Amino acid sequence: MKRSIEEIIANNRLSFDKEIPGDGHPERFYLKLQSTQTARTRTLRILVRVAAVLIIGIISATLTFTLINQPFKNKSGTTLSKISPELAETELYYQTEINTRKQEIKSLAFEGSERKEKILNDMNDMDKSYVKLSKELKENPYDERVISAMIEYYQLQLDVLNQVIHNLRNAAVLSRQNTSRVSKPFGQML
Questions:
Q1: Which of the 8 DSSP states describes residue 76?
Q2: Whole-model pTM above 0.85?
Q3: Per-residue model confidence as pLDDT tens digits over 51-67
């Protein structure tokens, strides 16, 4: 015969009530209850602060990413990422690589400010070509020729930037070699 828990407690009520709490028990209980509530509010405050820091971090990372890729965003055209997820991944890859190469070029030493200015102007001209292509993409978003032209643009720009970096590094090496030859006495060069 199964008996319910309420039935067992009701039949054995006296055996449960044997122990009487000591003096001051209710006061101690209320103090512990209050301390756990204040600990919970402290924990909640800490969690809110951590969440606020995380939100600020995410927002700043998003803004940084947006600002880094800003040359590729334009209001008059569209981007490959709006066409399909695969093209978005391709576009992100090329944009990241191109931005890395541009930063590397800006950090390299040049043998004259006009040379550096010419290279930076050429890079800006390439960006103007991108704007034209993005306008065409906006007008014909699923035209394979325009999509291929956009991808070829990225490939070409990356190739050009790699070639510029290669040439600048070679020029720096040659410049150092010429400087070291000039500084050595004639007898040591033989």
A1: S
A2: no
A3: 999 999 898 888 777 76
Using CA atoms, how far residue 61 sits from 47, 64, 65, 68, 101, in Å, is 21, 5, 6, 11, 21
Q: What are phi and psi of 2, to 5 degrees?
A: -90, 135
Whole-number Å distance between alpha carbons of 144 and 137: 10
Average model confidence (pLDDT) across the chain: 78
Final residue of a domain: which of 68, 85, 120?
A: 68
Q: How far apart, in whole angstroms, are the C-alpha atoms of residue 99 and residue 72? A: 10
Residues 50, 112, single domain; the answer is no
List, as one string, the DSSP characters of 108-135.
S--S-HHHHHHHHHHHHHHHHHHHHHHH
Alpha-carbon span 44 to 38, nearest angstrom: 10
Q: CB neighbours (10 Å) of residue 116? A: 16
* Residue 132, in any domain of the structure: yes
Q: What's the mean pLDDT in 86-114?
A: 82
Question: Among residues of the chain, what percentage have pLDDT more than 70?
Answer: 82
